[in-house]
Amino acid sequence: MAFTFTRLIETNPMLLKVLTVVGLASFEFYAAIPAGFAFHLSPLAIFLSSVSGSLLGLILTAFLGDRLRLYFSKKKELKENKPRNSLIDKIWRKYGVIGVGILGTLTVGAPASVAVGLGLNGSVRKLMIWCSIGILNRCLLFTVIAHLGNNLFGNNLFW
Q1: Would residue 155 be called left, alpha or beta, if left means φ above 0 and alpha means ψ between -120 and 50 degrees?
Q2: Are 37 and 22 in contact (CB under 8 A)?
Q3: Torsion of CA 123, 126, 129, 134, to 10 degrees
Q4: Are 50 and 136 in contact (CB under 8 A)?
Q5: Over the stretch 19-37, which tens digit does the pLDDT of each residue have?
Q6: pTM for the whole thing?
Q7: pLDDT value of position 3
Q8: What stretches pass through the bilayer (predicted)?
Q9: Which of 13, 29, 112, 126 has its CA 20 to 30 A from that of 23?
Q10: Distance from C-alpha of 33 to C-alpha of 137, rounded to nearest angstrom
């Protein structure tokens, strides 16, 4: 009998649940943790799956975003440097890569934070480091909050 992915899923249904949480975390983090609890995964499995998926989304966004930035920088003509006074520029000047990496990851997510940081000419390496730290904090925080809420209100909170 040939080995197929379908056969693997049929013999191990928990794998599909974990892969679903990983996939959700890679592009929409806020749906991943409740889905993990709805699938009755352990908090550790939810944490590891959401960290893995979020890091996967971060790597894809950073790689593609950096390539797009290089492509557009070659095509873009040099413009006059105007003073920039928008809110995001003020935040960037005040908090820098660390603020975008940690605070941005907690609020809007890692892919959006990387995109903003790359748009403001941030270092890809520094953005990856600080967004990874933000991902670990965010996943730990929201997994613990969801676990405590699930224990407080009963195990039927997420389904």
Answers
A1: alpha
A2: no
A3: -90
A4: no
A5: 999 999 998 888 899 999 9
A6: 0.81
A7: 67
A8: 14-33, 45-65, 95-120, 127-149
A9: 126
A10: 14
Q: What are phi and psi of 41, to 5 degrees?
A: -80, 155
Q: Can you give the pLDDT at residue 157?
A: 58
Q: Can you read off the two tokens belonging to residue 149?
A: 């809420």
pLDDT digits (tens, 9 = 90+) for 98-131: 988 888 888 888 888 888 888 888 888 999 999 9
